[in-house]
Design brief:
binds S-adenosyl-L-homocysteine; binds magnesium ion; 215 residues; 8 helices; alpha/beta; binds 3,4-dihydroxybenzoic acid
Length: 215
């Protein structure tokens, strides 16, 4: 929708300083043929602000793509902080490594290449903040891992949890819809996460996110 896109343009111009590293990351990603599904700039900044609000020192990201959201989040970290990001596609991981190094955050980031389920199973460090943004059918499993890797007060964010309203289709056989509905079922009764979900519109269309805190 043109109006949503134009408003995002206005908001980004108003509030976000032009940033060569972030713009280069998107350009390199596009040049390498990666899909244009990184978070929008104002969404990346929202992630960064949330991480700063809780003083996050250890951040986990599931789904790196070209490292665009990774750069936003890594910049929330103190100098001795750390971000671990998980990516299954070697071509995406290669672009991300270039982008993270060019942005000056490579030394703060560990990129684990392979299926996120395998990488998550091997992690045991507690994280302060987790951003889940990979294959949507696995979201319930990723949230369970994120809770296991959390401490009281850790924050979990899940991207793309509305998908233009497709989540209303109870009989859908779309694995992304089935996975997202299963995510809400998991959250509904979860003993350790208190969560909300919010719809968004903007340059990335009509979608939404889940935000939760772990007890
Ligand atoms: N967070 C990024 C966008 C991620 S797009 C940003 O906003 O900039 C989703 C990414 O998840 C893709 O790069 C895709 O290759 C990756 N992915 C898909 N399935 C995965 C899996 N099973 N394990 C790890 N990564 C996966
Ligand atoms: C898709 C994935 C995303 O993480 C996103 O933000 C938008 C779209 C997708 O797989 O289509
Ligand atoms: Mg996403």
């Amino acid at each position: 929708m043109d109006l949503w896109n134009d408003i995002d343009g206005y908001l980004v111009d108003a509030l976000l300083a032009p940033d060569a590293a972030l713009e280069s990351a998107l350009r390199r990603s596009a040049d390498a043929g990666l899909p244009p599904i990184a978070v929008a700039p104002n969404q990346g900044k929202l992630l960064q602000l949330w991480a700063r609000m809780i003083g996050a020192r250890r951040i986990l990201e599931v789904g790196t793509l070209g490292g665009y959201s990774t750069i936003w989040l890594a910049r929330a970290l103190p100098a001795d902080g750390h971000l671990t990001t998980l990516e299954i596609d070697p071509a995406h991981a290669a672009v991300a490594r270039t982008n993270l190094d060019a942005a000056g955050v490579g030394s703060l980031v560990t990129l684990l290449e392979g299926p996120a389920a395998d990488s998550l199973a091997a992690l045991d460090e507690p994280f302060d903040f987790t951003f889940i943004d990979a294959d949507k059918p696995s979201n319930p499993a990723y949230v369970e891992h994120a809770v296991r890797l959390s401490h009281p007060g850790s924050v979990i964010v899940v991207d793309n949890t509305v998908r233009q309203g497709q989540i209303l289709q109870a009989g859908s056989d779309d694995p992304g819809v089935v996975g997202t509905r299963a995510l809400y079922e998991l959250l509904r009764g979860h003993p350790r996460i208190d969560a909300t979900a919010v719809q968004t519109v903007g340059s990335k269309g009509h979608d939404g996110f889940v935000l939760g805190i772990v007890s």
